[in-house]
Design goal:
The protein is an alpha/beta fold and about 475 residues long. It has a single domain (about 15-410), classed as 4-Layer Sandwich (Purple Acid Phosphatase, chain A, domain 2). Helices cover about 25% and strands about 20% of the residues. The protein has helices at about 75-80, 85-100, 115-125, 125-130, 150-160, 170-175, 235-250, 270-275, 300-305, 410-450, and strands at about 15-20, 25-30, 45, 50-60, 100-105, 135-140, 195-200, 210-215, 260-265, 280-285, 295, 310-315, 325, 330-335, 350-360, 365-375, 385-390, 455-460. Residues about 1-35, about 405-415 and about 440-465 have low confidence and may be disordered.
């Protein structure tokens, strides 16, 4: 690979304090240049005139101090001339070759050893801002470990040019159509939000969302003393997603199926390990353990029940880049992009591309997009590898959205759910009656006291702090 130096475009001021006034809110950031929104930046996303919408995922830049930052896991001759600037150059090459409509940064965007977090963010996101491409970001478990708190990191990202990132989530009350003051439940984390991709400008679907994008904050580390490892998607985040998915589906009642959606996270959920049980449904490489939370909080189950998300995209594990189909939902890694992050000697840094198309292979327009993905490598040829179909809108789908298998009408599915619920209730009542007769009410009460209130399932994993 050729190593090319590019100049730093960040503001050199390190000790000035600026008052940021954006959307009527004042945010105070130390050691920061002034961030102001570009009025020409798009605020809505649309498929282009060819019916294409392309997303570039950048995972784990771990940007720190520019040209003074050392790289990791390269051959010796490359290490001597490598820095954060090589991450910048790779992203510039990606933007030039792929010309994405949206760039998504999936966390660990800056690293713990950054001496000035806001300056690091200015430099890290400079390529996409200079290219005037809309972008969105979530945080990983390292973004807040530098010089400013986690919430302030996310606030800063939301105010940068061309950023569509969000930090303020609607309350549960607003999603339920109620007075927010009556149900001001806050969603855990910072940066749980969604974006909609509308039809091509000037088309009949110009004001109709044809692709929804969810962004969730997977947190940092467990705050439960008895549970080690990483944090997990919390119950109120699950409820937020479920209510939002139902609301979005309700906005298109004429559709027989939900509008296709994608979900972006940083820390992979435990099912990223489960999908490996059937290698025939997995494409890509695994070079390290799946460092998911030790608690399975049920996010994958929520996705299955809602039926809209066709794929999830994670970072965190830099040398995993596989994408596998589990019950009709693809679980995908982006692969590590940053040179200051750990990697694998001889294994190129990479990024994942997702393309949604409103035309079939014959060029005929469709109302629901097909979704493809591939990866681009930072090698001499910018190699494109592992082309994969994530969603074929014309494919016959089974009960849970998996390809093939018997189709089930919504009415039949509701009836089946009622039957299962009724049978489960009857079985429980029968067992309850037998238990009362056998051990007595008092003993039965003592037995049930030990049943956990939440469905959490420990998963063995080799958690590491080096992600």
């Amino acid at each position: 690979m050729d190593w090319i130096w590019v100049p730093s475009l960040a503001c050199p001021s390190r000790y000035l304090v600026f008052l940021l006034i954006v959307s009527g809110r004042s945010l105070l950031f130390p050691n920061s240049p002034l961030v102001s929104a570009d009025p020409s930046a798009p605020t809505t996303l649309h498929f282009n005139s060819e019916g294409i919408f392309k997303i570039l995922q950048i995972a784990d830049m771990h940007y720190a101090n520019g040209e003074k930052t050392p790289c990791r896991d390269l051959v010796a001759k490359e290490l001597r001339r490598c820095s954060d600037q090589n991450t910048t150059l790779f992203i510039q090459r990606l933007l030039s070759s792929e010309k994405p409509d949206l760039v998504v940064f999936t966390g660990d965007n800056i690293d713990f050893d950054s001496k000035n977090a806001t300056k690091s963010m200015d430099e890290a996101f400079q390529p996409v801002i200079a290219a005037k491409i809309p972008w969105a970001a979530i945080l990983g478990n390292h973004d807040h470990e530098s010089s400013i708190p986690r919430e302030d990191v996310m606030k800063y990202l939301t105010q940068m040019d061309y950023s569509l990132s969000q930090i303020l989530n609607p309350s549960m009350g607003s999603l339920l159509g109620q007075d927010e003051s009556q149900m001001p439940v806050q969603v855990n984390g910072v940066g749980n939000y969604y974006l909609q991709v509308f039809g091509p400008s000037g088309s009949e679907s110009e004001n109709t969302s044809l692709l929804n994008l969810y962004f969730l904050d997977t947190g940092e580390y467990s705050k439960v003393p008895s549970v080690g490892g990483y944090d997990w998607i919390r119950a109120n985040q699950l409820l937020w997603y479920q209510l939002l998915a139902a609301k979005l589906r309700g906005s298109a009642p004429e559709a027989s199926t939900p509008t296709p959606a994608l979900a972006y996270i940083h820390i992979p959920i435990p099912e990223y390990e489960s999908v490996l049980k059937d290698p025939s449904k997995v494409l890509g490489e695994k070079h390290e353990a799946v460092l998911s939370p030790s608690i399975n909080s049920g996010f994958f189950t929520a996705l299955l029940q809602a039926g809209d998300v066709k794929a999830t995209f994670a970072g965190h594990d830099h040398t995993n880049d596989y994408c596998g189909d589990l019950l009709g939902i693809h679980l995908c890694y982006g692969g590590g992009t940053g040179y200051h992050a750990y990697g694998k000697v001889g294994w190129s840094r990479r990024a994942r591309v997702v393309q949604a198309s409103l035309k079939n292979k014959k060029g005929v327009a469709k109302a629901t997009p097909d979704i493809l993905t591939w990866k681009k490598l930072d090698d001499a040829r910018m190699s494109k590898i592992d082309l994969q179909t994530l969603y074929d809108a014309s494919a016959k789908r089974g009960i849970f959205g998996a390809k093939g298998g018997p189709m089930m009408s919504p009415i039949l599915l509701i009836l089946l759910t009622l039957v299962i619920t009724t049978c489960s209730s009857c079985l429980f009542n029968s067992l309850y009656a037998k238990c009362r007769r056998k051990v007595g009410v008092d003993e039965y009460s003592r037995v049930t006291e030990d049943i956990p209130l939440e469905n959490t399932y420990p998963i063995d994993s080799d958690n590491s702090d080096d992600d």
